[in-house]
Amino acid sequence: xxxxxKKVLVIGATGQIGSELTMELRRIYGGAxxxxxxxxxxxxxxxxxxxxxxxxxxxxxxxAIADVVKKHQIDAIYNLAALLSVVAENKPKLAWKIGIDxxxxxxxxxxxxxxxxxxxxxxxxFGASTPHIMTPQDTVQRPRTMxxxxxxTTELLSDYYFLKYGVDTRSxxxxxxxxxxxxxxGGTTDYAVDIYYSAVRGEQFVCPIKAGTYMDMMYMPDALKxxxxxxxxxxxxxxxxxxxxxxxxxxxxxxxxxxxxxSMPDFKMIYEVDxxxxxxxxxxxxxxxxxxxxxxxxxxxxxxxxxxxxDMLDKLKARLIK
Length: 322
Ligand code: SER
Description:
Distance between the termini: 38 Å
Number of strands: 14
Number of domains: 2
Shape: globular
Bound molecules: serine
């Protein structure tokens, strides 16, 4: 697919998703056309710094965001600034400030300067009263975590700006994202990343989530594909906008453990359940129905648990074992 030229700003470019999304967008649109937006203390390093422009773009500073958008004539913003679920539960006010006051700033800039906006929602936008098996696209969303409250609000505010002002807002409800470049910080699904690092380092893994707890997950290449393909989709085919259920796999701790042991039979896992993480995990879906994303913009993941595990272990071994 040949994509039209775009000028893109990634807010949160040094985070778990941002660090890889920025590089993928630069591969597609050219390095000079994708600005890595960062906050003080999280400056881009290495390839992220060398392959394109970078700008201080704190989501809580509306003027700074507007300045960057004007300076680089940005037409699409990937707004990835957020605290993950466990951190947000411990810092609810900051989670709101970054997630919602920040989103408001981005949407206002987008309205004034004519940008499209992608802001991720999450499986965290669902709660205990949501049907847990094959969770439908349109269903009950009454989360009791601050992370969930900000994600539902993100969906509503993004839809509002589209309906009221015509701002081209789009989003997906990401499941747990598994990656081998930048580690996630303080999410409920992080165990499914940490387990691979323990395996490759030859350490026993202490699992904070109970056996039998299913959650949706996705390998980073699929997450990047979801974000970019949705932003490139023909608007005429979109019935939904903020946000689409997307998933690639659903598993519980014993299944990922068994998958790793196929190639590392000596690897050991024990359980030490974290009550906060467990209560959050219990309130989230076991499996999402993502048929609307498949129908409306052709969503199709490439990685299942087996294929992801092979790639994760290969990449981490190459990097961590010298
Ligand atoms: N990975 C996120 C979290 O655990 C879920 O969207 O907070």
